[in-house]
Write a structure and sequence with these properties.
This protein is an all-beta fold and about 150 residues long. The protein has two domains: about 55 residues, no CATH class; about 70 residues, Immunoglobulin-like (Sandwich). Helix content is about 0%, strand content about 55%. It contains no helices and 13 strands. It has a four-stranded mixed sheet, with no helix packed on it. A three-stranded antiparallel sheet has the order 2-4-5, with no helix packed on it. A two-stranded antiparallel sheet has the order 1-3. It is rod-shaped, with a radius of gyration of 28 Å.
Length: about 150
């Protein structure tokens, strides 16, 4: 379901049944809300004499909703003393969310940033392997006189 990590209103269909006399009931033990993954539903048919037979059905719920990520703001830094690069750049932290669970948030930032603009790509991955990305710019400026 949109925004949730469960599925409701699942259309199970109807099993095919028959009996030499009369069928009294057909029931199942399906939950009202299915969790992510596989759920086994047991169907039971009962005839008018109280005899029963069962079969099972598997309902598989998958998470196909991508997580959401918002990158930190652009970072502007000066070069390190005596160098034409910047290290130890504080990138900040993106905000992320998911309908199930965020498994990881990573980025491809280099250890040392060169002079000029560098684009950092942040990636959020949810517990089902769905991903989303955003980009952040790091601008390194040479503020050291020759």
């Amino acid at each position: 379901d949109a925004g949730l990590c469960t599925a409701s209103g699942v259309a199970l269909g109807t099993p095919t049944t028959s009996d030499n006399c009369t069928i009294a009931s057909v029931t199942n033990d399906a939950p009202g809300v299915f969790p992510i993954g596989d759920t086994t539903v047991t169907w039971t048919v009962t005839d008018s004499s109280g005899n029963t037979a069962t079969c099972t059905q598997t309902v598989t719920v998958t998470d196909n909703i991508d997580p959401v990520i918002a990158c930190p703001a652009t970072v502007n830094v000066n070069v390190d003393a005596g160098l034409c690069t910047a290290s130890s750049v504080a990138l900040g932290t993106p905000t992320s969310s998911d309908n199930c669970a965020v498994a990881s948030v990573t980025n491809d930032a280099p250890g040392v940033f060169p002079l000029g603009d560098t684009t950092v790509t942040w990636t959020v991955t949810d517990s089902s392997g769905n991903t989303a990305t955003c980009t952040q710019t790091v601008t390194v400026t040479d503020n050291i006189d020759p």
